[in-house]
TrEMBL record:
Gene3D superfamilies, per the entry: Peptidoglycan recognition protein-like
Family: Belongs to the N-acetylmuramoyl-L-alanine amidase 2 family.
SMART domains: Ami_2 (SM00644), PGRP (SM00701)
Peptidoglycan recognition protein family domain residues: 29-170
Domain N-acetylmuramoyl-L-alanine amidase: 42-177
Source domain of life: Bacteria
Keyword Disulfide bond found: no
Pfam families: Amidase_2
Name of the protein: Peptidoglycan recognition family protein
Assigned keywords, A-Z: Signal
Signal sequence region: 1-21
SUPFAM superfamilies on file: N-acetylmuramoyl-L-alanine amidase-like
Amino acid sequence: MTIRPALALSLLLFAAVPAWAQSLAEVERSIVPVSAWGGTPADPAQAHRQTITHITLHHQGEPYKPGTDPQQYLRNLQKWSRGTKHWLDIPYHYIIDLDGKIFEGRKIDYAGDTNTEYDPTGHALIEVVGNFEEVEPNQQQLDAVVRLMALLAKKYDVGLDHIASHRDFSKQTVCPGANLYRYVQDGYFRHKVALRLAQEQSAAATPTIKAASAP
């Protein structure tokens, strides 16, 4: 059977992503909502509304020990953000733990907060737990960043050139840490996100091919 060029490209793109990879719809459904980790919603009357134009990566900036309960970490972070910083909520919209699980933080319709000089309005803020000046991100975390960035890029029509990190907008920080920043700097995340988006488009455009029944 002759394979048409368009179909061949679709098959190659599909093969570039593991068969077990979640669709972006499945990624969205897998995000742990605020209510599930014991958080409370922010007051919408106090929120600064935004339209997403950028995807921006952060790190926790503190050690995160294996075995730490991510739900307790998030409850503590929410309490600190509101009680000590007097912010609306957790400053980030999504948090990724050591296992690559994605948790909802601040409602994405609400602009985030930062200790530095840049204005995060319009930015979908992703925090990866850990201090990446001191440790390396693990593969589960890197994969989760790609999945989440691809989901956000598709959902909010964010171009690959608008995927960056905290330190790209501020001279006052090394966030997301040297060991995570290099994946931003060398184009790893943009490349992987492009592959995921292409795979998603290919899967949607290519009809399911059913195997012929055995005689």
